[in-house]
């Protein structure tokens, strides 16, 4: 097995296990809409359900359409991630890590959609002036971190290409 598949597979499994385990713990120990202050005024564990997408988008659409849409989009995303992972160079560990994180998050939320018809969210942050960030979970966090790593790698490789071709130098 190449390094890229070990890294991606490891990230995928860690994210998926953490996501499923934390959602099961929230289900087992918190009633729906319960909130436990971890850092009062800033960070709370909550138990909410999201029938929509990010920030509750499409939450009011009929359930059957939502499920078909979200499951289809998730399966397409999984296919794209796997195809992209296969095209990576064998030693491209950072991109493999990023794709493993995204894949683990996508599958974690897909499992929720299939078996619960909604996603369990439980991380709640209150920011300044009473603004609350929408609740999220481990899968959501892994997707965001994975996308961030891909963007950083893209920017770094763009900078390397410019410096190796001389495009980034100032002409005098």
Task: Kindly report the average pLDDT value.
Answer: 90
Radius of gyration computed on alpha carbons: 19 Å
How many separate domains?
1
Could you state the order of secondary-structure elements as H and E?
HEEHHEEH
Alpha plus pi helix count: 4
Sheet-strand content, in percent, reads: 15-25%
For the biggest sheet, the summary is: 4 strands, antiparallel
Beginning-to-end CA distance, first to last residue: 49 Å
Strand order of the largest sheet: 1-2-3-4
Q: What structural category characterises the helix and strand content?
A: alpha+beta
> Unreliable stretches, pLDDT < 50, 5 or more residues?
none
Helix content: 55-70%
Inertia-based shape: globular
Number of beta strands: 4
Chain-wise SSE layout:
Layout: H1 3-29, E1 35-39, E2 43-50, H2 63-87, H3 93-116, E3 119-126, E4 132-136, H4 138-165
Antiparallel strand pairs: 1-2, 2-3, 3-4
Helix pairs in contact: 1-3, 2-3, 3-4
Using brief descriptors, characterize the structure shown.
172 residues; four-stranded antiparallel sheet; 4 helices; globular
Descriptive account of the structure:
By secondary structure, the chain is an alpha+beta fold. It has one domain (3-165). The protein contains 4 helices and 4 strands, in the order αββααββα. The protein has helices at 3-29, 63-87, 93-116, 138-165; strands at 35-39, 43-50, 119-126, 132-136. It has a 4-stranded antiparallel sheet. The model has no long low-confidence stretch (mean pLDDT 90).
